[in-house]
Write a structure and sequence with these properties.
By secondary structure, the chain is an alpha+beta fold. The protein contains three helices and seven strands.
Length: about 200
């Protein structure tokens, strides 16, 4: 659960979210190094009056500043593609949960069991108990097993919705007439709020 004035991500609860956090740190370090280098070069050009004219039209310099950004883009793209394929991969799910978005609530159905479905409504602010979180608490929570692959089928009855659980690294759009699929696996027990 995020806390007020939090600058970073929520704690990772799934292997996918751990990979996303590592990728974020990797990319941020590259961006930081590029920004530092550009700031250094700009400050160097503004403070010195001497310019070396032969470097401005040197073939080697043009080759370096063409190849270097391509290498940097490859260093960003390869981990990104690996994570995309990991997120799309489904390995024999142990449980399937069908999630339907409605105007003001979500409907859940455990499809592996007969007649196991329920609606989940947000608790109004006036009915919250002390310690409960406004706009995040619901009357019926989804209970899922830990350390098992779970397939979630997401769709909508009326308008576009977004089904997201940040600590699990999940965000899937619920679109009327379309069935989207995602997988999740929690590595530790806990209460995880969706948004």
């Amino acid at each position: 659960m995020a806390y007020p004035m939090q600058l970073g991500f929520q704690d990772a609860t799934s292997p996918i979210m751990e990979e996303l956090l590592h990728f974020h740190d990797h990319t941020l370090m590259i961006v930081f190094l590029i920004s530092s280098l550009v700031l250094y070069i700009i400050s160097l050009m503004l403070t010195t009056k001497l310019t070396h004219t032969s470097t401005m039209d040197a073939q080697e310099v043009e080759t370096v500043w063409t190849i270097l950004p391509a290498i940097i883009l490859i260093l960003i793209a390869l981990p990104s593609l690996r994570i995309l394929y990991m997120m799309d991969e489904i390995n024999n799910p142990s449980l399937t949960v069908k999630t339907m978005g409605h105007q003001w609530y979500w409907s859940y159905e455990y499809t592996d069991y007969e007649d196991l479905s329920f609606d989940s409504y947000m608790i109004p602010t006036s009915e919250l108990k002390p310690g409960e979180l406004r706009l995040l608490e619901v009357d019926n929570r989804v209970v899922l097993p830990m350390e098992m692959t779970i397939r979630v089928l997401v769709s909508s009855e009326d308008v576009l919705h977004s089904w997201a659980v940040p600590s699990l690294g999940l965000k899937t759009d619920a679109i009327p007439g379309r069935l989207n699929q995602t997988t999740l696996m929690s590595t530790r027990p806990g209460l995880y709020y969706g948004q």
